[in-house]
Every structure is written in C-alpha cells, then in structure tokens.
Amino acid sequence: MSIRSIFSLFSNDLAIDLGTANTCVFARGKGIVLSEPSIVAFNKSTGSIEAVGRDAKEMVGRTPGDIVAIKPMRDGVIADFEATEKMLTYFIRKAHERAVWVRPRIVIGVPSQITQVERRAVKDSAYRAKASEVHLVEEAMAAAIGAGMPITEPFGNMVVDIGGGTTDVAVISLAGIVYSRAVRVAGNEMDEAIIQYIKKKYSLLIGERTSEQIKMQLGSACALDEPLTMEIKGRHLVEGIPRAITISDDEVREALAETVKAIVDAVRVALEQMPPELSADVVDRGITITGGGALLKNIDKRLREETGLPLEMAEDPLSCVVKGAGKMLSDFGLLRRIAKD
C-alpha cells in the first residue's frame, strides 16, 4: 500500500453545517459531498428510521399514522437529541460511502449565541455518531471564511448570515468576533408567516413544503421589477375541501414584512452598537450577506436602502458556512484560534 493510499484512509475529516433547514457536509480533499434537508422520518411502532434527508422531506405532511417526519433542529440548536444523533450518523456514513469503521475529526458550525448546554448537546451528538474529535466554530465566522473575507487582518469585516432558524450578525477582526448578535428569526419564520397569512386571508390551509415553494418563487424584501403570481393548492377551512387559488408577490411581501423587518433591525442594532473604529471599516468595506435566506429576492437591495452601506452577496450563500468550516480542516492553526471548545 502506498503512502498516499494510507494517508487517504486517515484523511476522513469532515466539516458539517448542521442547519435548521439543511445539513451540508464537506469532506477534506473532496469538497461538499452532501447537502440535504435536516429531517428524519421515524417509524413509531418499531422505533426504526424510515428515511433521512431528502427522502424524509418527500414524506413531510404525507405520512401514515405510525410514521412521523420530524425536524430535529430548531432555531439552529438541537431540539430532539436522539433524532439528531441518528441523522448525524447517517450523514457521516453517507459522506464516507457507508464505511462503518471510520472515526472522523469533525468541525461543526453553530449559532454565535447558543448556551453552554446547547453547545454540549451538539458535541455529544457528534461523539455518539462516532467522531474522534469535535470542534465547534461560530457560523458567522465560518461564513466569513467561506465567503473569502480577510478575517485575520486588523479590519472590521461585517457578515450577516441568514439561515433557516437564526440570523447571525457579526463583525470580525483579527480572527475573532468583536461583536455578534443572533436573532432567532430567519427562513423558517418566513415559511410560517406565509402559512398564517394565507390561512387568515383566504381561509386556506397549506403545508410547509408549499409555503417554502411560495417563499422561493414569490418572496421578496422589496418591490420586484415585474409582478409574479403563482397557483397554490390547499384545504379550505370553511368548506373543508381542496381548493386552488392564485397569489401575487405583493401578498407574499406583505406576509413576510415583519420577518424581514426583524432581520433589518438586527443589522441596524449591530451597526449602532459596534465600536467606532469598526464602524469606519464597515463604511469602507460594506456588509457581506450569506446563508440560504440571502436568496430571498431583493434582500440586498432592502438592506442597502435601510443602512446606506455597500452590500455584497456571497458567491454561493448556501454553502458559505460549510466551505469556511472545511477550510479549517486543512488549517488547524486557524481552527485552534477560532474554535469554541
């Protein structure tokens, strides 16, 4: 066996962005090997797992009585310990092509303001999923590295990471977080707002998957150049039968107004509270937006209007956190400075 093939056996380190909506896995030397919804489908009568990830998402809202599809992550932290552990085990094995004996070193991105108990829960889940070492890094820091920001320089770099469960706003300088603020308002909150709006206005009940499609197709933070419409189907609450209606981007924008305002306010509060030297840097360098929520149409335009600062969208906002955590796998010096262990 050559030196290289022996080395390839041991270079099984992984970086994981354990998100509320999606989990991404980055394998050292391979790049992103997996990106699937953070959902687990359980069989209640046998206690076994029916499906994880994409297959489980197909089942949401369509399961028979003994099967339940759950999202083990809520607001960026673990809500169901056992399900998270099973989900992690499945993703780690899938990333390693089902190799059972592999015990990887793992870097996991977590929201910046999670408690010590929540931090412990993430580590324990990873160790139970057969990790040999676990390092936690703050998502905002990982996102900034993944977006290619010069975080080790003595300048303030501001990053806004809009995920599924949390929005992280952070200012980073000299490889450390100088200011951070996390609000538990993000993509999932938008889905819920759309469900409630349609229920109230049209007495129509729609599912999570439908509301997510509406958000992706029609959702926007400020007026679009061309109006959009979409036909949606659900159950009419008064008549009790399935109905189809057409909604416009104006209505969806109205439904999302409060959530978008909460995200904008978090950015404004951060700008008000940061030290003046860093404020000067942010005026020069602007703000970088990352995370799946950054894909909401015109969110950059809205933030630019509200703050008057230059804004830049990260190249691949969805995978910034996992790419940043992945870069740390090959730079353990940086990881030691950044990891919150």
Largest sheet: 5 strands, mixed
Helix content: 40-55%
Q: What distance lies between the first and last C-alpha atoms, to the nearest angstrom?
A: 36 Å
Percent of residues in β-strands: 25-35%
Structural class: alpha+beta
The strand count comes to 18
What is the average per-residue confidence, as pLDDT, rounded to a whole number? Answer: 88
Order of helices and strands: HEEEEEHEEEHEHEHEEEHEHEEHHEHEHH
Give the strand order, joined by hyphens, for the main sheet.
3-2-1-9-10
Stretches with pLDDT under 50, minimum 5 residues: 1-10
> What's the total helix number?
12
The Rg value, from CA coordinates, equals: 21 Å
Summarize the structure.
This protein is α+β, with helices and mostly antiparallel strands. The chain has helices at residues 3-10, 54-59, 81-95, 116-128, 139-146, 187-202, 208-218, 249-273, 276-285, 299-307, 320-329, 332-338; strands at 14-18, 22-27, 31-37, 40-43, 49-52, 67-70, 73-74, 77-78, 105-110, 133-138, 157-162, 167-173, 176-183, 204-205, 229-236, 242-248, 287-290, 311-313. The longest helix is centred in the last third of the chain and has 25 residues, at 249-273.
